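Deliverable D5.2: sample structural annotation.
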Amino acid sequence: MTLAFFLACIMAVHAFNIKESADHMESLEEQLEDNQDKQAQLYAKMFQDIYELQKYAKKSRARRNSCSFKLLEKIAGVCGEISPGSEVNLATICCSQQCTDEFIQASACPDKKA
């Protein structure tokens, strides 16, 4: 009789632990699904941001290339010829603001007289 009672208690506790474990497992599965949804949303946002940055970089690069070409033409017009070796980065300065012919001459061809 005692043995039967003891076995019944073990079975009841064991069944309770299985039910508790199943509930816990279900809760973990729901959390996993929520986390996967959040991760998918974050990836979608990240890829959208990367796409926007790529569009901006292409536009920015195109503007820089256009400015650089115009600047080379202006330097050639002011200096007569283009020679490397200036200490001043004219593209950085002149593509962000308007440079005067005097500034270009002083920077790119200081030996040339006006």
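Annotation notes: Residues 33 and 39 are 10 Å apart (CA to CA). DSSP finds three helices and no strands in the chain.
The annotation will be released with the project's public dataset once the embargo ends.
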